[in-house]
Sequence to fold (207 residues):
Amino acid sequence: MNVKIPISTTELPLMEDFYTIQGEGFYQGRAAYFIRLGGCDVGCVWCDVKDSWDAEAHPKVAVEEMATKAEASGSRIAVVTGGEPVMYNLEPLTDALHKRFLKTHIETSGVYPLTGSWDWVCFSPKKFKAPHPAIYAKADELKVVIYHKSDFFWAEEHAAQVGSACQLFLQPEWSKEKEILPLIIEYVKSNPKWQVSLQVHKYMNIP
Fold:
């Protein structure tokens, strides 16, 4: 049974926050302020931010402080990511961000019910833990990381459950990019409802 970690919702474990360029998916190339929360129980073997998994390793920070820093950056977009941010009640954080006229985006594997008020929901399901069924109707963007050829079929299973307006992206797992990207290119050519997502921030050597 999925159980969220109890924590004050006016303070959340913050691994890092920074102003950068969104490197993936629909908003790729846009300036965005990232708020990376600590804590994750999904356990992707290829995760590139495993330091985020342990919530207790990161300081609890007031959501008002996070929102104030996001506003001061000059960004119009605040992206909440992790870790797995839906482990927490995110209503106070999105309220604080909206109060400062920031657009709220979330990147999540959707393993728990979504809380908070979001302007954009990027749903990136993982094989290591099943998504909560409610996430499909809320997804603005489905971003599936392709690690193996069998993942294309798995991606289609999720695409069949999201809304008709949801943007569909296939993204190569970074360590297998040279092997997997050509397969994604051919797949998208044969299935043009999908788009290619690349981690362009890694090509630009920025966070």
The mean pLDDT is 92. Residues 11-203 form a domain with the TIM Barrel fold (CATH 3.20.20.70).
